[in-house]
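Page 42, continued from yesterday. The earlier attempt failed because a stray header line got pasted into the input along with the sequence. Redoing it now with the clean sequence only.
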Amino acid sequence: MRLKRIAAWRFPTAKLPWWMSDARVGLTLIITSVLVTVGVAFAGPSVVTLVLGPRNSLLPPWYLPASGLALGEWVVVPLLWAMLAIGSVGLWISWQAVNNGWRPHNRRLFALGAIMSTLSCLVPPLTSADVLMYAAYGRLQVLGMNPYDITPAEIFRQAYDPVLRWTERPWQDTPSVYGPIASFSQYLAAVLGGDNMHNIVFWLQMFSLIPFLIIGAIVVKLAHSDPKLQTRAVLFTVMNPLMIWGVLVGAHNEPLSLVFAIAGLWFFRKSPFVAGIGIGLAGAVKVSLIFYGIAMVWGYRRDWRKLLQLGAGAAIPLALAYGLWMPNALFAFQRNVGYVSPGNWGLWLLWVIGPVLGDPAARQLITNLGWLGLVVIGWMLSRVLPWRLVPGNPQDEDPRLDPLTITVRTIVVLSAAWVITAPWSFSWYDLIVWAPLGLLWASRLDVIMLWRGAWLSIAWVTGRALQFSDGMHTVERFLREQVNIAAQYGVIIAVIWWWWTWGHELPPVRQWWRQAVAWVTHRPSATTPAAG
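This time it went through. Structure tokens are written below.
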């Protein structure tokens, strides 16, 4: 009975002023947010816009010369705060419009999102210097060095290098934490860009933009025959101002990993083996895509033949990438273990228990609590998230029996639980949630993810390791370490409250235990008829 309630649930739509569910208002706010952000980047280097060194070609990113418009920190930082707030409100209004019956021309809407996404990658990256480290790791490979063993700082502190000198703190002394395919993309960008950081960054931006657009296109295609679902898919991917900001404006490599996993979903009903290759390739970019692999296994759990095909397909790229190509990349991700983000829930706890337990022990405890939280929040989401049949099968089929639907829903549950509870988590990580979320019914998780992403994005406008003025430093630290962290605790509380008000169903541990014992101890007797 309870599952039927959840399956039939719709997000309640209260009476709102007309403009709060008007798609024209929502789209206007989203477009304004993105275009002003592009304008800030086009104005040239500032406390938020990266310095890319000399330009020796006509390639993007394009921006005004240094002698042009120079924007101070008290102009660009509050302006971007405002634009992120406006974009988030626009996304919420557009979401309300979809729930209230707005059905746009989805191809045109996708084209609009693709244009805004592309414009965001034709100007310099903002706020995060991660892309400079990608370029540095690629440069190390071009120089014949291993980025998993050598850091950029070890080179540029000994000798001049035209690329490595433009990297920024705090990761200059950190070896690569990315998988072999990510490393190859960095190497390829360094080859194409030569010894010019500006050109290398352009290619890295393209390696973020192109997979991002492909992800959006595949998700929209998976929602075929359902115009409402297609609109959600467009809105949550290429039209999503939080993802344009978090992923593309910062030129992060999340799309490169996710595109293979989403391609795997496209083949999930057609070929388990090809789907397995997709998730294997994704794992060779970033280990965090393991949640997609677990979800695929869960989707095929009733069909051992397809499960074996999935495993065989995944094993091929993983074995080639980590076994033969770059075996030392296998444990690179462990370097992120123990990190506590200054803008995440773990910081407050670190302040409390750090002086008592010592910093290393406190960080290890917070990491363990994060894994425990993943299980707890994941269980809660699994109890309340609506079931919605992914298009492609007869609409009267039970969605709880369709492998693709099970997989997509499980991906959302695991990925959302991870980004919410991980002590080291940023807004661009949320792409792994937003993309499959577009294939589900509207739910409270949509608003929870919007709230989380909006505050994290605002908090990291001042994410570069630069020396801001005393006044700005005080404001940005208060916003990131107080207001934003309170908002992240609000995300956790919102999930718990959602689960509690929907019956606070607990795991049937005793039932699972009895079934496990029965399975282990069962012995067929002489009177037991043979199977089949």
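Notes: Residues 2-501 form one domain.
Reminder to self: strip header lines before submitting.
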